[in-house]
Design goal:
heterodimer, A: Ribosomal Protein S5, domain 2, five-stranded mixed beta sheet, five-stranded antiparallel beta sheet, about 30% helix, B: alpha+beta, OB fold (Dihydrolipoamide Acetyltransferase, E2P), Ribosomal Protein S8, Chain: A, domain 1, 5 helices, about 30% strand
């Protein structure tokens, strides 16, 4: 394994100064793309994802539509300027196509697609800045955008990542830890229903570390969920303030 | 038993009540609890609570009055955009009261692409090629010849109409024809186009502030103000 340029963990402090169980600063805003039916922007530190939802609308070509339920299509894409080093080719890579599928499968359990027969729901996620944990930031953004579009959902899906760095379980991996850490575990979690919709894992984990990581992921997701609720609330309450604030 | 308070903002997955309570609107049951499917507001009525969504698309129901745009002329009818997830279909038999020979009369003599129609939803059948069938054989429906159409979010339509039509009656005081399509398109026709502009702004305002308390009073005040201004301007 390659050696990281800086130590990832020293005396319980991570390279960016965080504690192992600490998220980066989470910033969420809802309704950022006015053209879309619903949209959201989510930042986990320097990782920023924008999601826009269009639909439900008519499916073209028609043979792709399903008679008893709607079809959701997800496109995850990284902007060419999103990475730190080499410009990222704008062509969808193998990885982006895979993450698109993973995101769709993580969102589908939450969405009542039976309500939208013969139609489609398009979800576009664009990564503006990539610094680790992009798929989970995308997941949070996509679920908020779907809620903003008024699509029937059983719960919001919150994405957080957990990783293994120098044998310690850490929350919300940054790019460095993602690259040089020993393992990562992206999780999609529905905080109200207490159910998981996404669970991926790589690296070598002990059973104890895995269970510890899962608990940490739940705590992280609940923290992000509160910020997500506040963001949705802000969108509707800002109008009220405009009237009564004067 | 209810877990919510009146006019509380709720989010997807939030618990609303136990299943022995009466809850209407976009909700689902999970583990003996009603939970919300949308971002919405909780309204308490005499016979239970209703979840009012704050965003959403139009879901056609039989009997709805809708404002639609003709998007295509087909062999025996028209394709109409009603802002639903599927285009609606208006067959010739539902548009005209007399028999027409389709071999000699082109359908474009009655309705052409771009025309606006106010129609009633005759039937919704998801197994049909066109699931939404419209009809013009009802009262107060037909082709629109003049006026303005304003678009709002379909979920705000009940607010625009108000309790027993209170909000709509306030708007009617300006002295215009107003038809609110359930699909969120509002048709306004006045003798003076300035009145149309004024009403269009009010409709937009109702859409933006629909969840803020005291809206009906604010709108009534604006209508009164406008009416006085108009009177003075005319003198």
């Amino acid at each position: 394994m390659k050696k990281p340029p800086v130590p990832l963990l020293q005396n319980g402090v991570r390279a960016d100064g965080r504690a192992p169980d600490q998220m980066r600063e989470v910033k969420i805003s809802v309704g950022v793309v006015s053209n879309a039916d619903g949209s959201a922007m989510v930042s986990y530190g320097t990782t920023t994802a924008v999601a826009a939802v269009y639909g439900p609308r008519e499916m073209h070509p028609r043979h792709l539509s399903l008679p008893d339920r709607g079809v959701m299509r997800v496109r995850y894409h990284m902007a060419p300027f999103s990475t730190k080093d080499e410009r990222k080719s704008p062509t969808p890579s193998r990885r982006e196509i895979e993450i698109s599928k993973v995101l769709r499968e993580a969102l589908e359990p939450a969405i009542v697609l039976e309500q939208y027969p013969r139609s489609r729901i398009d979800v576009f996620v664009e990564i503006l800045q990539a610094d680790g944990s992009t798929r989970v930031a995308s997941l949070t953004a996509a679920s908020l955008a779907l809620a903003d579009a008024g699509i029937y959902m059983r719960d919001l899906v919150i994405g957080v990542s957990v990783g293994l760095v120098d044998g310690t379980v850490v929350l919300d991996l940054n790019g460095l830890e993602d690259q040089y850490g020993e393992g990562d575990l992206p999780v999609g979690y529905m905080p109200n229903l207490k159910r998981f919709t996404l669970l991926q894992l790589d690296g070598a984990w002990t059973r104890e570390a895995f269970l510890q990581a899962l608990n940490l992921a739940v705590r992280g997701a609940e923290y992000v969920y509160q910020i997500a609720r506040d963001a949705l609330k802000t969108k509707y309450m800002s109008i009220a303030e405009e009237i009564y604030g004067r | 038993m209810y877990f919510v308070t009146p006019r509380q903002l709720i989010f997807p997955g939030d618990v609303i009540a136990t299943t022995d309570s009466k809850v209407e609107g976009p909700v689902y049951v999970d583990n003996g609890r009603y939970r919300s499917l949308v971002v919405g507001l909780v309204e308490f009525r005499e016979d239970g609570v209703v979840v009012v969504p704050l965003e959403g698309t139009y879901k056609p129901k039989k009997g709805d009055v809708v404002v639609g745009y003709v998007t295509d002329v087909l062999a025996t009818g028209w394709e109409i955009d009603v802002r639903s997830f599927m285009p609606a279909y208006l067959p010739v038999s539902e548009a005209l009261h007399r028999h027409v020979d389709l071999e000699t009369t082109p359908l474009t003599t009655f309705l052409n692409v771009g025309d606006v129609v106010i129609a009633k939803v005759k039937d919704v059948d998801l197994t049909d090629e066109y699931p939404i069938i419209l009809t013009l054989k009802e009262e107060r429906v037909g082709k629109v010849e003049s006026g303005t159409v304003v678009e709002i979010t379909p979920v705000k339509v009940p607010r625009l109409i108000g309790k027993r039509g209170s909000m709509l009656n306030t708007l009617m005081e300006v002295g215009c024809d107003i038809i609110v399509g359930q699909n969120g398109r509002v048709w306004i026709r006045c003798r003076d186009t300035r009145d149309e502009v004024f009403l269009a702004t009010l409709v937009r305002k109702i859409e933006a502030e629909s969840h803020v308390m005291g809206l009906t009073d604010r709108i009534r005040a604006e209508v009164e103000k406008y009416k006085t201004q108009r009177q003075q301007g005319a003198v």
